[in-house]
Specification:
Layout: E1 6-12, H1 16-23, E2 40-43, E3 46-51, E4 54-60, E5 71-73, E6 81-83, E7 85-90, E8 93-100, H2 108-135
Antiparallel strand pairs: 1-8, 2-3, 3-4, 4-5, 5-6, 7-8
Length: 146
């Protein structure tokens, strides 16, 4: 039997529609998802990220009304990894939830390190969205390299 997934989430004080509008564009993922490199570039129907491991192809869920932000990453020389990510409406804010599946060959220590990394990225999304919400910005600021 496979290892149970880990569900990591963060509550965000930003309305669902605004949070989704900022989170959904693939070019905004590097603002908070540090594992996706400093910038993404289009490649036909997909995207490419330059990472320390090499160029990594990515796919993202199409825009939708349901808060689905799923994406698929293809690390060089490895099997494509599915990353379920959801934005859920909650009161006046929302909840950002990522399901982390343990990949083949990942030991307990690495799985915990991966979960810690995801938790930091979710906290970065929260900080970005809440900062922009409190500033009353209508659009995200220009991307900055990491």
């Amino acid at each position: 039997m496979s290892t149970p997934p880990r569900h990591l989430s963060v509550s965000i004080a930003c309305p669902f529609a605004r949070a989704y509008a900022l989170l959904a564009p693939p070019e905004n993922f590097p603002r908070w998802a540090s594992g996706l490199a400093g910038a993404l570039r289009r490649d036909g129907d997909g995207w490419l990220a330059d990472t320390p491991q090499g160029v990594m192809p990515l796919r993202f869920s199409p825009a939708n009304d349901y808060g689905v932000l799923d994406h698929w990453v293809s690390p060089p020389g490895q099997v494509e990894v599915y990353v379920p990510l959801r934005l859920l409406a909650r009161d006046e804010g929302c909840e950002l939830l990522l399901t982390l599946f343990r990949q083949a060959g990942v030991d307990d220590a690495q799985f915990e390190a991966d979960a810690d990394w995801v938790a930091r990225d979710l906290a970065a999304a929260k900080a970005w969205l809440e900062r922009d919400e409190s500033a009353g910005l209508s659009a995200p600021p220009a991307a900055t390299p990491r």
